[in-house]
Amino acid sequence: MTETLASLAGTTVLITGAAMGMGKMYAQLAVADRAAHVVLWDINGELLEAAAAELAGRGSEIHSYAVDVGSLEAIEAAAERVRTEVGTPDILINNAGIVRGKYFWEHDQRADIAATMAINTLALMHITREFLPAMIAGGRPSRIVNVASAAGLLANPRMSVYSSSKWAVIGWSDSLRLELAQAGHRHIKVTTFCPSYIKTGMFEGARGPLLTPLLEPADVTKRVWQAMKEGTPILMMPWTVKLSTALRGVLPLAAWDLVAGRVFGVYKSMEHFTGRK
């Protein structure tokens, strides 16, 4: 049985994409949960400092680092600073991500394809690899949350590159969970988070499929936080994500395309996507 973390008192929490949106909400939850150190990573230095100032003075020591997680060199440099200045994280929230909503042939090779894979997929692997050996050696109850997407479970038009980045995250993240358990490192639990569209502005213009309203960020972060503390292996939100995944697994492809496209409206959900300005 998984041991639930009663609180984060005395722990170090590192969050990527922490300057705004759900990343900042996770930081607020870490402070409220009495974490000793909260480490904020984000590429936007101005917003990062504003977030750090907002969180300061509430009981946790706040550490902010401007980091381009799309660069392995930047990750390595920032991770070394964290190890030296703060220590090894006990909780790692791999939250940073980007989306490009267009047909595959409209994607730019570097700005869209390479950037999406670097930030949404490789960054999670590189960041985790930087800290995991010390997390293993430390023996303390630890958690890793990898933010994937329902798009990593179900294909969708205008999301080919984004979906592929999240499919990769799901496969790697759940394999990591199994590897840690198999190798006897059961003090580290991995949670893979697969949500549908969330009202953060990142998916502005997207329409939720049938029975799948856009999720409220505050509700989502609280649910992820609880799943993290409980060591839940995978979290899908809302319930229709799990239903759709099950239907996709049992229906013939032609039948699923009909259900997803005409009944649930999944295949039309990105038709009016504009994204965050």
From TrEMBL:
Keywords: Oxidoreductase
Keyword field contains Nucleotide-binding: no
PROSITE patterns with a match to the protein in the record: ADH_SHORT
InterPro entries with a match to the protein in the record: NAD(P)-bd_dom_sf, Sc_DH/Rdtase_CS, SDR_fam
Oxidoreductase recorded as keyword: yes
Domain of life: Bacteria
The family this protein is said to belong to: Belongs to the short-chain dehydrogenases/reductases (SDR) family.
PANTHER family listed in its UniProt record: PKSB, RETINOL DEHYDROGENASE 10
Name of the protein in question: SDR family oxidoreductase
Taxonomic path: Bacteria, Bacillati, Actinomycetota, Actinomycetes, Micrococcales
